[in-house]
Amino acid sequence: MSVDLPVRATPQLTDAELTELTVARSAYEPKAGPGLAWKAWQSAWPKLLAVGIALALWEVVFLSGWKPAFVLPSPGSVLQELFDRAFRPGLFPGTTLWEQLAKTMSRGVTGFALAIAIGTLLGVAVVQWRALRLAIGSLLAGLQTMPSIAWFPLAILFFGLTETAILFVVILGAAPSVAAGVITGIDEVPPPLLRAGKMIGANGLNRYRHIVLPAAMPAYLAGLKQGWAFSWRSLLAGELLVPIGGASALGSALSYSRSTGNAVWLLALMIVILIVGMVMDAIFGIFTRRIREKRGLTGAI
Amino acid sequence: MTTTSLSTTPRPTGNGEPAIRIKGVSKTFGHGADFTVALKEVDLDVAENEFLCIVGASGCGKSTLLNLIADLDQPSTGTIDTGGRKVAFMFQEATLFPWLTAGQNVDLALKMRGVPKAERSDKVAELLQLVHLGGRQDKRPHELSGGMRQRTQLARVLAQEAEIVLMDEPFAALDAMTRDSMHDEIERIHAELGLTIIFVTHNVRESVRLADRTVLFFSSPGRVKTEFKIPFDRPRHFEQPGIAELSGQLTDQLKAEVAAHVR
Fold this sequence. Notes:
The complex is a heterodimer.
Chain A: H1 15-25, H2 36-64, H3 75-87, H4 97-128, H5 130-145, H6 152-159, H7 163-187, H8 191-199, H9 204-241, H10 250-259, H11 263-294
Chain B: E1 20-29, E2 36-46, E3 51-55, H1 62-69, E4 77-81, E5 87-90, H2 102-112, H3 117-130, H4 146-159, E6 164-168, H5 176-193, E7 196-201, H6 204-210, E8 213-218, E9 223-229, H7 243-262
Parallel strand pairs in B: 3-7, 3-8, 5-6, 6-7
Antiparallel strand pairs in B: 1-2, 1-4, 8-9
Helix pairs in contact in B: 2-3, 2-4, 3-4, 6-7
């Protein structure tokens, strides 16, 4: 005896049903990510932990009595000093921390802006003229390795103990890196993109504006970031060596605090300098990351 | 499938003069020990509105020839006359600008041609619609699949409204299904716009699928070996009878050439 098995027709799906199936799949797609607060915490806790460990080590060294307290004060007293200098400036004579910070930053920004202008023009000129590249290409690389502090004696001879001397060294510190960024960026524009640009008729100035410069942007930004790091170092060195007007800027305040034996103030200033460096680095980091994300240069390898 | 009519009317076919006339073109690279002859005395005429495929092994100089026609490089001897026709180039890799979205890539081609800003955004949408990329306008190249990138490149090529389109193995990196649909696309656009196309490939069957005429290139130095009229009516299909047979015959010829050359 045979058993009749129910015959099942091959399912014929209509377009609507197919769409429904596809739409239903979206239920398996990932839900919205974790909240912003959670993300911030995720990235913040390792940093906070590191700061905590550093402070703890400092405290241990302080308690061990390795150095007397007027040379190595406790972290608590330094943080207190920092807080007072920032929010209770009335307690101290002379220029405030904010004025010193503003002075240093305005020198840094002015010098860096000039370095960008000079470095960019120089970089474009080197790319454009072969003879110029042969003449000063290796010199530019050499200048990058030259510690900018080595320029100070010459700068002081030229300009005396003036703002110009500081500016001169800040520019010399940053401009070669900016120029190098321009040169690498333009040299390394992928040839297929240049060919594609030529085929759509981007010639002359348009070639630079729409193809070469955007393509060179990541390397240019890297050059700017390095340039800023160099100019920031040169600037602080300059303010230490060329003290103008007492403790009017971060570097000269640093020098002043040492000469008056005020270790608490000295360490507080060093923390400010470190924070400024980190903030600037983070700003460049945001730009770099944004540009890389746009071009699909981040993520899984 | 959405069908968008092409805004450009087919151009009138000319007076029987070839659209591209290549005469005695040779191209050499390097000096001394590095000296190589990439192309040797190539003579080739391409008729107005013709779909010509150039087939040959790697390194036979087919890409070099396209570069010469596109004026991206100059021939060592000989002349190439395109009668002042505008030339567009579709590259093997989708050379989209990674800092622009798909739409902006197409827009830049329009802008370089001097299309006024007011007309451009509609035109971009229309061109992307034409290559079935409607709604992908704001995607960046890295967010698109290989096939979509080539479609975007095709839209950028069409934005140039060139009479001659050079294609250098544009579908070599695509999967078979995507390639089939791109073939349909190219065939339709070729017919509707009355373009003159030179399509370089190492895939004999692809050439039989697409071409009015296929030219076999011979390697080292590159030169024209033989040519074949492809007799099938359009629209064609990759799997249709006849295409496989003809491809087989052409492949045999190509193999014989390679063997003869090796000996």
